[in-house]
Give the backbone structure.
Amino acid sequence: MTEIQPQKIVPQKIVIVGGGTAGWIAAASLARFLPAQRHAITLIESDEIGIVGVGEATIPQIRLLNAALGLDEAAFMRATGATYKLGIEFAGWGRADSRYMHAFGGVGRATGPIAFHHFWLRGQHLGETAPLDAYAPNAQAGWTNRFDKPAAGGTDLPYAFHFDASLFSRHLRSWAEPRGVNRVEGRIVSVERDGESGDVRSVTLADGQVIAGDVFIDCSGFRGLLIEGALGTGYEDWTHWLPCDRALAVPCASATPLTPYTRSTAQGAGWQWRIPLQHRTGNGHVYCSAYTSDDEAARVLLDNLDGKALADPRPIRFATGRRRAFWNHNVVALGLAAGFLEPLESTSIHLVQSAVERVIRYLPQGPIQPADRAAYNAETVFEWERVRDFIILHYHLNARDEPFWRECAAMPVPDSLTEKLDLFRANGRITRFNEELFAEVGWLQVMVGQGLMPQGYHPLADAREPGEVRELLALMRQVIQRQVSAMPDHAAYIARHCAA
Ligand SMILES: Cc1cc2nc3c(=O)[nH]c(=O)nc-3n(C[C@H](O)[C@H](O)[C@H](O)COP(=O)(O)OP(=O)(O)OC[C@H]3O[C@@H](n4cnc5c(N)ncnc54)[C@H](O)[C@@H]3O)c2cc1C
């Protein structure tokens, strides 16, 4: 009888090109979920080239990554100089003097089959004046610089982080390397493709090292070394909807109070971000070069810092859009190599995170199947386009008077966004399609915050007596005020639990 030989497992070689936020999120996640005997993970990065070093504001889904990796939150915050984030303040986006918060988490409580905001709209028709954010615990905590973790039975404030991008990559690296990720330092000088299939076979470094792989993850940043440089995948340009094409980034000294939210302030031809960290504040000006000069953009940025600038403004150029295919041949592009959406809603790191989850879901056992690739691409396109629409919304719904903003208000927008706007405008309805990232409350806060009030609301909101509606609204506001006023100050909370 012939003895059955145990099958020798040849590990699938996964090569990650790039060690910025995208590369290290991919490396850590793959190391966490793929069995080491079946997958060999190599990450190549070049210290000489470095990383983009921006990308410091996140959305609450980042906590799923931390939880999946089992990162201790206090240690993570200390290591990355992080602060808590409850939402984003938008200053000057509706009218020049307007201000609202897109807060994470809920707004009001539904009291039946219809969303809360229909009652709020009914209240407005009855003469109630409390703004929408009076019903958003995160906004109320944010405006008063408070933060707390949900105690048993207490208010749940969904939160994200602001962190130092370079320290974040380093933190992930220190997690991933001991778990089997092989890091190679060096500059890739050429990419070799298989003559028959056209797949990428290997990359060659400046020192002559050749690194071969079965699957390549292109996290090489804007240059898209494999997805564009080697495969010429092509780019779908979205600059006719999102015309900002440059940014200047500058850190400044911290200021008090330590706000638990990102601020986005509209400027004459773009907007300025402010991201408070424990040890400094990150700032940047995203602008449209057709409407303002680099010098003027730098002046606006530096005039609007709330602490001493700690460096000269660093220029970054981009074209908003996406690769025609996120997965082409045996190359999947993540992060800036996949495309660019401006950081107005802090979505790019999340897009990396969700793409890595998808890569794991579609990872082939043997040869890559075209159907898998097509499904991956279709899901990713849907996700990107819906986020794109949400960002366009901010520009389109403005009531400012500068030429740049008038142009944005007048531009034709994608049909998918027009449908959302029409639905809301008529009767205050918001529909979340499939698994699009932003929930109804996100759209609601931005649309109302920028001055779009629907003509009507759901008829069920009329089923209650006016007095009852007023009472219900007042009660919700009181409960939130009581809970928020018992919370500690954000800076004090950090000092006690996770000071860097
Ligand atoms: C102005 C701006 C502000 C942003 N703000 C936010 C934000 O607030 N929130 C958010 O979620 N996202 C934000 N982003 C996006 C975020 O910065 C990126 O998604 C994130 O940093 C990922 O970058 P990356 O890893 O793709 O690229 P990079 O950080 O550029 O990394 C590229 C890597 O590839 C390596 N590499 C390149 N070429 C070679 C080569 N030839 N050989 C070897 N290695 C090579 C580099 O060394 C580096 O390690 C912002 C982006 C910009 C431009």
About this structure: Residues 246-317 form one domain. The chain has 15 helices and 21 strands.
